[in-house]
Write a structure and sequence with these properties.
The complex is a heterodimer. Chain A is mainly β. Chain A is about 0% helix and about 50% strand. The chains are: A mainly beta, B mainly beta. At the A-B interface, strand 4, strand 5, strand 9 and strand 10 of A face strand 4 and strand 8 of B.
Amino acid sequence: GAVVSQHPSRVICKSGTSVKIECRSLDFQATTMFWYRQFPKQSLMLMATSNEGSKATYEQGVEKDKFLINHASLTLSTLTVTSAHPEDSSFYICSAGLAGANTGELFFGEGSRLTVL
Amino acid sequence: LAKTTQPISMDSYEGQEVNITCSHNNIATNDYITWYQQFPSQGPRFIIQGYKTKVTNEVASLFIPADRKSSTLSLPRVSLSDTAVYYCLVARIHKLIFGSGTRLLVRP
């Protein structure tokens, strides 16, 4: 089956620094990837849709200058949390679907836990 | 995107069959019904998907009535490792909006 991998799985950083999280589709090409964040005991919240070769589409209330998304190739999307603060500490998850299979089946990465001190 | 409603939590015991029902009254004609499972600190994992009637795979069954306004995920003979959050989603595109999910606790 399709595999999506994230790196790093855990990252700790100091307040004010920037952190980059990578999301790769290992055995398929993904023109579109999705980024979610999840707080403890809560559901996944969609942050943005990452489009290969074009700008990401952000959900309402998500700061695009805070969460920079780059989708430079068909197998890699990156999320950069800029000037991170403790309230940005969360579990970030990416996902991708097979092109043409528009049925709502997504393949998710393992997630990346960000802790901002 | 159709909104879904499912129980917040359920308890069960090992070996029992667990049925989680989800309502989606505003489901559109082209929407598929998909269930995901999530363990703590992991990304969601696809369990099963259906459009109508019944679908069965190696881990679960999905029952969908004719009006498609609800669906039931059936987990046969659950084990402790089935303790997780289960999400029901309806969508026809890859952009998925997650509801609150059902937290299933399987007890010995």
